[in-house]
Amino acid sequence: MSVGEQALSSELSAQVEDRRRAANAEALARLVGAEPVLVDVAPAGDVVPDMTPSTILTSGAPLEWDEYTGGQRRAVLYAAVYEGLATDAEDAEAAIRSGRVRVRTTQQHACIGSVAGIYTASMPVLVVRDEAHGNTAFCNLYEGESRHRLNYGSYGDEVVRGLRWLEHVMGPLLAEALRRSGPIRLKPLMARALRLGDELHSRNTAATLLLTRELTPAFLDLETTEHSSAARAVLEFLTRNEYAFLRVGMAAAKATADAAHGVPFSSVLTGMALNSREFAIRVSGLGDEWFRGLHPRLEGRFFEGFTADDAEWIGGESCVTETVGLGGFAQVCAPTLQAYQGGTTARMRENNEAMYAITVGEHPDFLLPPLDFRGAPVGIDLFAVLRTGVVPVIDGGLAGRDGGQIGAGVLRPDLDCFAAAADAYGARYSTG
User: What is the mean pLDDT of residues 329-357?
Assistant: First the structure.
């Protein structure tokens, strides 16, 4: 019997177990009832709570500065240089150690981060509000198709040009387009993208096209204004970058997961995140504590010229999509992922179907056509994971030691963080 099963069977009374099940039903209702809406794009310093000009955000459960390693540490240092808070990486190191630059995690600011997840005050962010529950979440913009991006630990003239373009062209143009078009309801768009071959983590082709279609009337309106050249450039970017919607989907998933967080007695996961040291989970009924464990096991495909020896963990929170029934939990919708991350359609179906054993319900809107339109499995239950030994399947990209993306695949966490969370649950809610 696992540690978590012991906590459930021997430390929790029948009354507490009844309350847990009721709380999980409430958390599930919040997950499937969320209505994420894209309402704005604005500089992080203007909209992210407690974001200051000298704050840098990065992915994962919080660490002390000396604990960050490799590409994630480099990305934070480069972010300080990009923001004008330091002249070079050495100066950025000194600024962080002296307290002139503050390093925090995205999770402490209602944000969500891809890979290293870097935010600075000047960077534009997508603002997504859950209209059903009133909370707001943020995600920064996709940097483009180059393998070398700041969130993968790369820095140089190409990276800086791309970030400045997002800051001065794409961010303001998207904000203007939303002012003209009005907010964009994301759940119907995402549900349709599943029917068109996306799983909304590693494949966002259809969702990006659908978002572009929503914005096109506003882009056409801008053709007769001073924004015409920017509108054309942004339209070209969206047409060329099929991953652009991922950041929108991440913000929607973050707003959705946050709406389900804080339900007393609930054992439903409302967060999964990576930093350079570890994988961690957050549980609805266990406050803001993150329960930490080993990095996931990799089942991936490396791009040409790279091997497992080139891989490095540098953070990542795009697995928030799996917490709301997408990504690996809708993998069967995206058979074309085989060309990107390997595997077979049969294996993808097996992965997807296995997730029903560890979730508390099925999504009424996120329907999976290859499974006869069955609702996506949603609401990962901490104790179901420990009881079955089945861990969440997570679609994801692989980072390289020299910066940049070098592959993609499926990530499978260890049970250690789930056992730690179960122990904490038993300690908090035990009546013995």
Answer: 90
Supply angle C-alpha 44, 49, 53, rounded to 5.
Answer: 50
Q: Check whether 334 has a pLDDT greater than 90.
A: yes
> Could you give the strand order of the β-sheet that contains 124-130, starting from the edge strand earlier in sequence?
111-112, 136-140, 124-130, 36-43, 184-185
Distance CA 300, CA 226 (A): 46
Q: Which amino acid is at 192?
A: R
- One DSSP character per residue, 62-129 reads ---GGG--HHHHHHHHHHHHHTTS-SSHHHHHHHHHHTSSEEEEGGGGTEE-STT--B-TTSEEEEEE
pLDDT per residue over 145-182, tens digit each?
Answer: 887 889 988 899 999 999 999 999 999 999 999 999 99
* DSSP secondary structure letters along 305-372: T--GGGEE---B-TTHHHHTT-GGGGGGG-GGGHHHH---HHHHHHHHHHGGGGEEEEEEEEEEGGGT
36-to-44, 71, 258 alpha-carbon distances in Å = 19, 32, 11
- With respect to residue 421, please indicate whether it lies within any of the assigned structural domains: yes
Residue 424 covered by a domain = yes
What is the distance between the alpha carbons of residues 128 and 137, in angstroms, rounded to a whole number?
A: 5
The average confidence (pLDDT) of the chain is 93
Count of domains for the chain = 1
Instruction: Give CA–CA dist 247/11, Å, rounded.
Output: 41
Whole-number pLDDT of residue 11: 55
Q: What is the pLDDT, as a whole number, of residue 311?
A: 83
- Domain containing 320 equals 3-34+260-429
Calculate mean pLDDT across residues 349-354.
95
